[in-house]
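hey
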C-alpha cells in the first residue's frame, strides 16, 4: 500500500524520496486506523441498528398483513404515547316541510376516546465474545431473529385484543365489545380447538358469514371492498373445505396483488385472512387477554371488521446494543416496539366477533 501511494504521489510531484516517504507515512496512518476500526471496534461483528429497526417494522406487517387493514394513526401520537380519537356528537333532526321558523339552533357536543401505546421489549440477550469466533454459524442473527419473531407475535396478538377491548385510562373507563356484536357459530359439531378446551363446539359455515354481512349492513357499516375477517385455521377449514368447488371459486376471486397482501379468499363480500390464533372467548363470551390461562369451556373466535373501524398507531422501533461489555465478556442486544390500537368508535361500530358455539 505504501508503494502504491508513493507511486501515485510521484506522478504529481515527481519520483523522489519525499513522495515515497509521504506514501509510507500515509500508509502508516491509514493501515492502523483501518485495523483499529475493523478489529478493535468489532465492525465485522456488529449489527446495523437502523437496518434491524426497519426490518422489524416491516416484518410486523408482513407476517400480520391484516394489520394494514386499519386506519393509520401514527401521526396522531401525542408525546410518543397517547392517541385521542374525537367522537362526533351526532347529526341533528331532518324535518319534512318545516312549518315553524326560526328553527331551534342546536350545538353539537363532541367527546373523545383515548388509547395508550404499549412498549413491547425483548429480554436483553448476550452473545459471548468467544462464540462469535468459534461457532460455525451466525449465532448473532439466529438469536436476534428468534427474539424478533416473538416480538412480532406479541404485538399482533395484543393489537387484536385491543381492537375489541379498550382498558381504562385516567378518566376514561374501560369498554368491552358489546354483546350484540358477538355471534355464535352454527355448523356441525367439531372437536374443541381452543388451548386447554375439551368437548365439542359448533363448527363455522358460510351461513355464519352471511349473518355477519347482514349485521354490518343493518348497522350501516357495510362498505364494499373494505370488509375483512380474520379466521382461525380451524374455522377457515370448516367454512372452505379443500374439496369444494365453491372454495375454488372463492380462491379465484383473489388477485395476485391481494394474495401477496395475505388475502386467501373473497367470499360474501369479505376479504378473508387467517393466522395461527385470533382470539379466545370464555363460555360466557368474555374475551381472554393474550397469555391468560384458559379453561376447558373456552372457544376460539374470529374477528370481522370494516377497515376504518379500527386503528393502529406505531410510536417507533428501537434496537439497543452494548458491544464488548466488560462485565459479560460479549455483546448485549434488545429491542423495543411502541405500538397501540383500538376501535375508532366508542360503540365498536363496524366490528363483530364470531366465536364457537356449544352444541345443545
Amino acid at each position: 500500500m505504501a508503494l502504491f501511494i508513493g507511486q501515485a504521489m510521484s506522478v504529481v510531484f515527481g519520483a523522489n524520496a519525499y513522495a515515497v516517504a509521504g506514501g509510507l507515512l500515509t500508509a502508516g496512518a491509514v493501515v492502523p486506523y483501518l485495523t483499529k476500526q475493523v478489529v478493535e471496534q468489532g465492525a465485522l461483528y456488529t449489527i446495523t441498528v437502523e437496518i434491524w429497526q426497519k426490518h422489524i417494522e416491516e416484518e410486523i406487517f408482513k407476517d400480520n398483513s391484516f394489520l394494514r387493514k386499519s386506519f393509520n394513526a401514527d401521526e396522531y401520537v401525542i408525546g410518543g404515547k397517547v392517541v385521542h380519537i374525537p367522537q362526533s356528537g351526532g347529526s341533528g333532526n331532518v324535518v319534512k316541510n318545516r312549518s315553524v321558523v326560526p328553527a331551534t339552533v342546536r350545538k353539537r357536543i363532541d367527546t373523545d376516546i383515548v388509547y395508550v401505546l404499549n412498549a413491547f421489549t425483548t429480554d436483553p440477550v448476550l452473545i459471548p465474545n468467544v462464540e462469535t469466533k468459534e461457532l460455525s454459524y451466525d449465532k448473532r442473527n439466529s438469536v436476534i431473529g428468534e427474539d424478533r419473531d416473538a416480538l412480532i407475535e406479541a404485538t399482533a396478538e395484543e393489537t387484536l385484543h385491543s381492537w375489541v377491548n379498550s382498558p381504562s385510562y385516567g378518566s376514561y373507563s374501560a369498554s368491552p365489545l358489546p354483546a350484540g356484536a358477538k355471534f355464535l357459530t352454527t355448523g356441525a359439531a367439531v372437536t374443541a380447538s381452543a388451548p386447554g378446551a375439551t368437548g365439542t363446539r359448533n363448527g363455522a359455515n358460510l351461513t355464519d358469514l352471511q349473518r355477519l354481512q347482514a349485521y354490518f349492513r343493518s348497522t350501516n357499516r357495510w362498505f364494499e371492498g373494505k370488509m375483512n375477517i380474520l379466521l382461525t385455521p380451524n374455522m377457515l377449514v370448516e367454512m372452505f373445505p379443500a374439496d369444494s368447488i365453491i372454495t375454488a371459486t372463492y380462491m379465484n376471486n383473489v388477485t395476485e396483488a391481494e394474495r401477496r397482501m395475505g388475502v386467501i379468499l373473497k367470499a360474501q363480500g369479505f376479504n378473508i385472512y387467517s393466522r395461527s390464533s385470533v382470539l379466545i372467548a370464555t363460555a360466557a363470551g368474555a374475551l381472554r387477554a393474550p397469555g391468560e390461562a384458559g379453561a376447558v369451556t373456552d372457544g376460539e373466535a374470529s374477528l370481522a371488521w370494516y377497515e376504518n373501524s379500527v386503528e393502529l398507531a406505531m410510536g417507533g422501533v428501537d434496537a439497543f446494543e452494548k458491544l464488548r461489555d466488560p462485565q459479560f465478556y460479549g455483546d448485549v442486544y434488545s429491542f423495543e416496539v411502541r405500538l397501540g390500537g383500538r376501535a375508532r368508535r366508542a360503540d365498536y361500530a363496524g366490528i363483530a366477533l364470531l366465536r364457537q358455539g356449544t352444541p345443545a
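DSSP finds nine helices and 18 strands in the chain. The longest strand covers residues 310-325.
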